[in-house]
Amino acid sequence: MTEIRQADRALICDCDGVLIDSEAIAAKVIVQELETRWPGLDIAPVVMPLLGLRTERVLHGAASALGMTLTPGDIDAIRMTVGTSAIKAPMVAGIDAALAQIPLTKACASNSDRGYVEAVLERTGLVKYFGSRLFCADTVDAPKPAPDVYLAAARAVGVNPEACLVIEDSVAGVTAATAAGMTVYGFIGGGHAGDEQVDTLRRLGAQHVFDDMKLLPELVSRWLHRMTVA
């Protein structure tokens, strides 16, 4: 195999749950909103596995699983409440220092809308690592679990998919990045993550699963070494 130069590789990060610790907040809001509408139902176990999908798909999926319905007005209202809450979330612990140590082109591929991603990265200061290399669900034909945002990111930064390392926290995200032909590492250190995610993310294609962003620079270094000697 021809050696791949470091300049021909990229690190692509999901936003919610990887850069911004917002998934726990989004989950709490969704569960509370649905409990208000459907009192007496056990909603959290249905919602949690759906995180990482677009909010409207989480809502439709939960409604279908529980045999309930939501009006378009309900969905719009819940989406707005989720967005208003999630945009205030802190960055994931350790991510700033980790990204500063990784000498690769970096991009963000998110299932959220671009306006939200721009706002949270600007507020937290993480935008300095990504610049305009933001690829979001509202700018591609199909959101995760389709591979579109990841393929768009690879094309834009001029890196082949197989030379991209993706950091993801969700079923939808790992599925999308794997379908794009990229190496995927699963992150379970966010406030929403549980131990059961380890087996799930590995089964879907995550080659490594970790829970502390302090480990990321070394994990990237090992991946780069494997790419060089393969």
UniProtKB/TrEMBL annotation:
Pfam family for this entry, one: Hydrolase
Signal peptide extent: none
Classification via InterPro entries: Beta-PGM-like (IPR051600), HAD-like_sf (IPR036412), HAD-SF_hydro_IA (IPR006439), HAD_sf (IPR023214), PGP-like_dom2 (IPR023198)
Domain of life where this protein originates: Bacteria
Gene3D superfamilies reported in the protein's UniProt record: HAD superfamily/HAD-like (3.40.50.1000), Putative phosphatase, domain 2 (1.10.150.240)
Cofactor: Mg(2+)
UniProt entry keywords in alphabetical sequence: Hydrolase, Magnesium, Metal-binding
SUPFAM superfamilies reported for this sequence: HAD-like
GO molecular function, one term: metal ion binding
Magnesium among keywords: yes
Protein family membership: Belongs to the HAD-like hydrolase superfamily. CbbY/CbbZ/Gph/YieH family.
NCBIfam families assigned: HAD-SF-IA-v3
PANTHER family, per database record: 6-PHOSPHOGLUCONATE PHOSPHATASE (PTHR46193:SF10)
Listed name of the protein: HAD-IA family hydrolase
Natural source organism: Paraburkholderia azotifigens
